[in-house]
Amino acid sequence: MTFIGRSLLALALLVAASPATFAADIKAGDLVITQPWSRATPGGAKTGAGYLTVQNKGSAPDRLVAVSGEIAGHIEIHEMAVTNGVMTMRPLEKGLEIEPGKTVALAPGGYHLMLMELKSPLKQGDKLPVTLEFEKAGKVAVTLEVQPVGAKGPGGEGGSMMKHEHKM
Known about the structure:
This is Copper chaperone PCu(A)C. Residues 1-23 form the signal peptide. This protein is mainly β. The protein has one domain: PCu(A)C copper chaperone (Immunoglobulin-like, Sandwich), CATH 2.60.40. It has one helix at residues 3-17, and strands at residues 26-28, 31-39, 47-56, 62-68, 72-83, 86-91, 96-98, 103-106, 112-118, 127-134, 138-147. Strands 1, 2, 3, 4, 5, 6, 7, 8, 9, 10 and 11 form an eleven-stranded mixed sheet that branches. The termini are far apart.
């Protein structure tokens, strides 16, 4: 086998073993949910965050209105923003709209799921079942895969993640 052939084979095996390729897309009505993940937390931490991407392939908007899961006392949909150098985080009381034909990424530094009153620390490799509730698509079971502390995306430290549209 040539050097190029071996290189292509090694690359194919690396991509096939990537954690991001293990999770299948989750379809709910016109929505497609991908890359659900979280970060490990230090012992004693009472909060964590969850991230994912939602694409609306339909012609009408939908809205993420609630999230629940056994790992936390309650889970809120949050927005983080930096305005005039001041970081603010707030719950989205009316949920998060996913416009038709658009993709919304819940990612570090923007929209995210705030896991509050954690019942135990989140450990790398854990799988956290949560239920997303949409106005139109209804309830959808999703599993957040816990990545290392400080991970930037669903593949761990070097994972890639789509940026959401919110300017910071």
